[in-house]
Amino acid sequence: MQTGLILRSTGSWYEVRNTDGHIYRARLKGKFKIQGLKVTNPIAVGDRVRFDLEDELENTVVITDIEPRDNYIIRKSVHKTGHGHILAANLDQAVLIVTLAFPRTSLGFIDRFLVTSESFRIPTTLVFNKADILKDEALDYQREIIDLYENIGYHCLETSATEGENVAVFRNLLDQKISLLAGHSGVGKSSLVNAVAPDLHLRTNEVSTFANKGVHTTTFAEMFEIAPDTYIIDTPGIKELGLADMAKEEISHYFPEMRDRLNQCRFHNCLHINEPGCAIKEAVGTEEIAESRYWSYLGMVSGDDNRR
After folding, report:
1. Beta strand segments in 39-147, E
2. Using one digit for the tens of pLDDT, what is the confidence trace for 178-210?
């Protein structure tokens, strides 16, 4: 039996690298379920697994076990009701690449991603790409948004993959870590990766001017080692991000600015909607909590459209 790291998942087949650096094609033996977790993909990129050699000539192995995960990022499955889909496992950090125009990343989408990563205490950086296409007023608005998130405690970075702005800073952010890179299609994720790791030659596509949406260039999640002990996990563009396996009573725990005030509410089970003596609503009224964040919270609690 050998141990290895899942580099790529294509549905029924996986690529796994053993401790010597050899890459096998791998499959699961029969049904494979993780206790207490209803997911469409039992194994995800970044998982550490144990496997047996199946066919040396065909370079295939059979995965027999998955080692305990440190963490993972999960979304609600868009194909199977009541199930989640794991984007990646065993991460040091997540990097959400966003654009405020062409295509627009909504604040609601940003907040859903942050809540998901907060639920597993995965540090997250927001990278605001395509700074070069923004005019003065739009740049001012972007900096207001950056101030909002930095004041909560999230690291933010403005970049332009095409102009090279802060590309070196982006590269340093990834150093000696396993990083999940996520975002909508068309935000320039592949262009940023190509700027710091040109040998990968990731495919890029233009954003459609008709729909102002990106075209998917990544079909499956895949891990790359861009330098010794520096890994990135490139994911398909995420259109929507439904919360998986999260009770509405716990959602406020994953908003740092709300978490700091939870013991100040009159009722310990306060949902911060219409209860009296709510410290969260009071903080929204005094602008200590951003209104956009509060609206995101309400949307998550009520299960509203997760693309906004």
Report:
1. 48-55, 60-66, 72-76, 84-89, 93-98, 124-128
2. 999 999 888 989 889 989 988 876 655 443 333
